[in-house]
Each structure stands twice: as structure tokens, then as C-alpha cells.
Amino acid sequence: MLLPSSAARAYAELLKLRPGPARQLLRTEPGHATATLLVQDCIDFTELMLSQDASRYGATVAAQDAHLAQLEKSSEKSALREYARAEIRLHQAAAQVTFGHEVQGAWSLRQAYQQMQTVVKRHPTYLPARKTLGLMQFFIGSLPEGYRWFLKLLGLPGSVEAGLSNLRAAARQPNDFQPEARILLALVEETYYKKPEEALQLVTRLHQQQPDNLLYSYLLISLNKKQHRTAAALAAYRARPTGAGYVSLPYLRHMAADLLLYQGDYAASRRENELFLQEFKGQHYRKDAFFKLYLAAWLSGEAVAAEQYRRQIASGGRTVVEEDTYAQRFFEGKLPLNRLLTRARLQIDGGYYHEALATLDAFHSTTATPLRDRLEEPYRRARAWHLLGRLDSARLLYARTIALAGNAPYYFAPQSALQLGFLYQAERQSNTAKVYFRKALSYPKHEYKNSTDTKAKLALKELE
């Protein structure tokens, strides 16, 4: 069933992150209609999740309950109605978990999962349901073991293979929500299956088709940043659409602050992160922002300002995302960073690999050098050589990092094992790749354990 024209245009405006114009278009549709309720919820949910504004949470969840009640009363018999019920319940689950109501969120997720399974069984050709079911199946199936027991208890085992199959079906065939499905599939494959070029090509093409689309601009910035293309990411940031109608997206400033930090433009980086902290209502990335402010001041030689920022890392925010966890561990660890290693890390993140190697050449360890720094130096060299395509040098240095680390609680060894697994997987040396992926999973504690374990686990599934 196709969305009515006004609802479809409203959804297209929402994909551009223009909730105001989307609401205006919806006003021409009956307020009780299934499509109106669904798109209205998508607008409310998008604004809540992008703003992370806790003051909106109660009203948004109440509106979701009202929409669900209207759908329950509806006499309409259609795939769209059943899909809307499950989709709105999933949005509610995500909102509940994001704002600290994890148990309620888990039960809402269970309802959404089971309802969407039913939609797919009753309407096997209705592709939007495959998009959402596929996403849930994939992420539940890819969760680290430490999280999966609770979802299994709720009857949500998940399946990576089924999830990818459903996502691909929704992404490759025309339907009302095909653009969303294409983006989700591309991001999954880019993050977990080493297909960065495909994702960037898709987003670049979408951005060229709709230069007024803020979502596509955001994705273009993000993917270029992840692929160490700092200049391209900053160009996309500066060319992003702005003005009346667009949602506020403070996180873009935080990304820009990182990019400027990579370039060594410390004053501009500080300005962007200060604006991010002023504009952002949420609790995520705040610790990371103060850590990056610390780095910018410290690398500029402003010791007093750096210490003020360092203390603020502990003053607020949560440690749900790994960047915030890393910042909090830095604050609690009290082990000073090495200036050369830190600069090299930022240069590598920014794609300045030769400059990073030159910086690392100035680093000299002694018996008094902390273990963390002695591990970081070969790991950073390995990353630079890897990204430059000098794979023999990278393999040697990754292996050296693992040998030096033992069970040290830093991420350098598990990340080295993960990267070696990917290198041997690409060379079709499956048995050796499996050894390193299992090695990556074996480390009990480090800053990036969740993402490292997820990637290693998915890679092992591919090799089975």
C-alpha cells in the first residue's frame, strides 16, 4: 500500500530533516489516517532523538501511546496499519532506552519485534516491514554476548543472516521507504563488512541529487570523516544546507571540531565544541567534547585552560557511547598523555599518514616510558602503514603490539588482533584470520570492547 501523496511528501521533507515543512504537509491529510499517524510519529521521534532533549521525552511517548491507541481502534485492514503499529512501538523502545528506561524499552522492543514478524508473515511482499524487521534481526544478532542473554530471555534471538537478507530486499526493490532502507544497508555494510567505498558512493550520489537534504549532508560528512578524508568532510560541513525549516543538528559541530583538531586548527576546533555544548540538550558526547577541548588547549600549550576542560569531563554526561567511556577513563586514569603520540593519533584519524610517521619518528621510549605509550607507538605506526597500503609493515607492527601487551587493559592489542584478522581475511587465509578474530574477542577489558567484539564476531560468522 502506497502512502497518500501529502504523507509521502511530508516523509520526503522529514528525510531532509525539515520537520516543520513536513508537519505543514500533513495537515492536508485526515488526522486519524494510518499514514498521518505514522509520519507524525516519525517527525516527533526524529526531533526527540536528534535533539536528545529530555524535556520532550514525556510528551513524545504520550503521543506514541495515543497514536497506537488510535491504530488499535481503526477498522482498517492493511499492511500499512500493521506496519505502523510495529514501527511506532519500535520508536518508543528506542526513545525509552535512550532516556534511561531500559526495562520498558526492552519490553517495547519485544512487542515491536513480534508485531513486525507477524506483518512479514501475513504480507511477505510488503517491503517496509522487511526493512525494519531486518534491522532488528541484524542488531540483535550482532550484539556482544554480554547483552544478548537479556534479549534471549525476552524471546528475541536475532539473526545476522536473516537481517541482512530482509534489509537487502527492502533496499533493492521500490517501496515507500526504499531510500531509508538503502541508507541503513549501506551503513551496516560500511561499519561491519568493510565496504566503505560503496557507502560513500551511494551517499555522494544521493547528495548530488538532493543538495538541500541535510540528512545526506550529515552522512557525507560522517562517511568522509570515518574514511580519513578530512578536507572533503569539512567541505561538506561548510556547504551543508541551513535556514528555516531545518532541524537543529548540534552534533555536526562536534564532528567539525574533530576534523579541525586533526588539521591542527585548535582554536577553531575549540569554538565548534563550545558551540556544540551550548546547543546540544543531550547527555551523549559531552565527555568526549570536553576531552577534545582539553586536547585542543593542551596541544596549544594552554595548560590552565586544558586543566579546566579536563576537570569538566567528569562533570556531566553519560558513558554509554564508547567515546565518552574513553574520555572518562582518561580522566580517572590520571596517566598523562604523550604529546607526540597524541598528535600522531590525530594525524592518522585525519588521513595525514606521512605526517604521523614523521611525528612518531621523534618519539623515543625508555625503561621509564609507561606501558601504554610503549604499546601505542607500534600500534600507531601499524595504522599509518596499513592505511598507506604497506601491509607487510602493518602486520609486523600489529603483531609486535600484541606481543608487548600481554593482558594490559588498553585497546591497542585487541584492535591490532582485529585488524590482522581483516588483513588475513582479505587474503583468504581463513584459518589465520579466525585465530586473530578470536584473539580480539579474548581481551576482557578495554575502551572499545563492544565495537571490537561486534566486528570480530560478525567476521567469524562470515568465515564459518
Return the string of H and E elements: HHHHHHHHHHHHHHHHHHHHHHHHH
- Give the integer mean of the pLDDT values: 94
* End-to-end gap: 39 Å
Q: Which structural class best describes the helix and strand composition?
A: mainly alpha
**What percent of residues adopt helix (DSSP H or I)?**
over 70%
Secondary structure: number of strands: 0
Q: Radius of gyration in whole Å, from Cα?
A: 23 Å
Organism: Hymenobacter sediminicola
InterPro entries: TPR-like_helical_dom_sf
Protein name: DUF3808 domain-containing protein
Describe the structure.
Helix content is 74%, strand content 0%. The chain has 464 residues and is mostly helical. Among the domains are: 1-123, no CATH class; 250-334, Alpha Horseshoe (Serine Threonine Protein Phosphatase 5, Tetratricopeptide repeat). Helix 7 (127-142) runs antiparallel to helix 9 and helix 19 packs parallel to helix 21 (371-387). It is globular, with a radius of gyration of 23 Å. The mean pLDDT is 94. This is DUF3808 domain-containing protein. It comes from Hymenobacter sediminicola.
Keywords:
Serine Threonine Protein Phosphatase 5, Tetratricopeptide repeat, mainly alpha, 74% helix, 464 residues
In a nutshell, what does this entry contain?
Helix content is 74%, strand content 0%. The protein is mainly α. Helix 23 packs antiparallel against helix 24.
List the helices and strands and how they pair.
Blueprint lengths: L4 H11 L3 H8 L7 H18 L5 H17 L5 H20 L3 H21 L4 H16 L2 H9 L6 H13 L5 H15 L3 H14 L4 H13 L3 H9 L12 H13 L2 H14 L6 H14 L3 H10 L9 H12 L5 H11 L3 H9 L9 H17 L3 H15 L6 H15 L3 H13 L6 H15 L1
Helix pairs in contact: 1-2, 1-3, 2-3, 3-4, 3-5, 4-5, 5-6, 6-7, 7-9, 7-10, 9-10, 10-11, 11-12, 12-13, 13-14, 14-15, 14-16, 15-16, 16-17, 16-18, 19-20, 19-21, 20-21, 21-22, 22-23, 23-24, 23-25, 24-25
